[in-house]
């Protein structure tokens, strides 16, 4: 299908406005994003996906270095004879490593033509802007939760969740603080009617409470910033069990809300979070870094591929601020159902 005249005209206007926004003459040639526009670009990414705004995203100067502290988990209140009490907050001892990261949002001509026919120019522009920003932002989370390696050439077919794009938070903890991740089989069995076997739990509350009390540092276990990240397979199983048992409207409401609070902590199921994984941590403990001055953009209509491509290149990476504030059960070790007979 060819690009219709309406969409072609809208695309020319889009390219002109994009060039004006970034202060360049031609967006079809790769250009560096200035520091003020890097800030605006990061803000646009954060605004497009709510969960991304909850974690720590920030620019850094070096390709590798020490993790930037955004919080201090020790006490900040006291006194000192003859002077003023102070508490420190410095860059931590953990390391981060950034790597080349290349994003491309491609829109086929058929879709652009449909957009052009379906609305006016302003609506077309909004769809163009939102599509690229939203996809890039979601990929930051997709890789953060699922990334395990850094391939010289990534394979999106074999690794649809960005497993080979970068090492995400869970993988970093596996390599740097493996004791923070449960490796024994855990069985979530909400249908249990008899005595529970070793490693078997009837509720998510029981799993999360033990995970927190076993692997989160004692000084952090009562920190109100702790939350639970829980996979949709687990919450769906728990909700189905509760809904089947509910015989009152109030019980059904409770069942619908059970994934909002687990083990006394606020619960989230982020985009692309593995279905059987559980993590107890602070959202600020999850970091994404982008190296200053490395952001480049390019936006062009590629006739040979019959699509419009919006590209975003930068050096980017992931980090954990405090390993002892991250406790997890890996999805490979989480089973839904009864534990086998001894």
Automatic annotation (TrEMBL):
A Pfam family this chain is assigned to: Phage_cap_P2
Full protein name: Phage major capsid protein, P2 family
């Amino acid at each position: 299908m060819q690009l219709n005249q309406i969409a072609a005209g809208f695309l020319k206007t889009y390219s002109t406005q994009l060039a004006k926004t970034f202060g360049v003459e031609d967006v079809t040639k790769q250009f560096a994003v200035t520091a003020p526009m890097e800030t605006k670009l990061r803000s646009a990414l954060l605004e497009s996906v709510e969960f991304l705004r909850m974690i720590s995203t920030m620019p850094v100067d070096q390709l590798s270095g020490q993790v930037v502290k955004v919080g201090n988990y020790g006490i900040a209140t006291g006194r000192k004879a003859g002077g003023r009490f102070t508490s420190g907050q410095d860059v931590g001892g953990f390391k981060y490593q950034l790597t080349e990261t290349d994003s491309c949002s491609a829109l086929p001509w058929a879709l652009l033509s449909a957009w052009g026919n379906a609305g006016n120019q302003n609506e077309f522009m909004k769809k163009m802007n939102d599509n690229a920003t939203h996809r890039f932002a979601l990929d930051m989370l997709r890789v953060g939760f699922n990334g395990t390696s850094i391939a010289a050439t990534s394979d999106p077919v074999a690794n649809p969740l960005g497993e080979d794009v970068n090492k995400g938070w869970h993988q970093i903890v596996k390599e740097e603080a493996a004791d923070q991740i449960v490796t024994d089989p855990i069985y979530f069995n909400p249908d249990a009617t008899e005595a529970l076997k070793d490693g078997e739990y009837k509720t998510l509350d029981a799993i999360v409470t033990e995970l927190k009390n076993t692997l989160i540092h004692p000084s952090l276990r009562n920190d109100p910033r702790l939350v639970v990240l829980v996979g949709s397979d687990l919450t769906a199983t728990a909700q189905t069990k509760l809904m089947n048992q509910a015989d009152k409207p109030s019980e059904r409401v409770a069942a619908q809300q059970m994934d909002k609070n687990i083990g006394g902590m606020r619960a989230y199921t982020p985009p692309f979070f593995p279905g059987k994984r559980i993590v107890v941590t602070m959202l600020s403990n999850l970091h994404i870094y982008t190296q200053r001055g490395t952001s480049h953009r390019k936006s062009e209509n590629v006739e040979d591929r019959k699509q419009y491509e919006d590209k975003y290149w930068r050096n980017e990476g992931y980090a954990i601020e405090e390993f002892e504030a991250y406790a997890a059960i890996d999805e490979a070790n989480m089973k839904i159902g009864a534990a086998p007979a001894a």
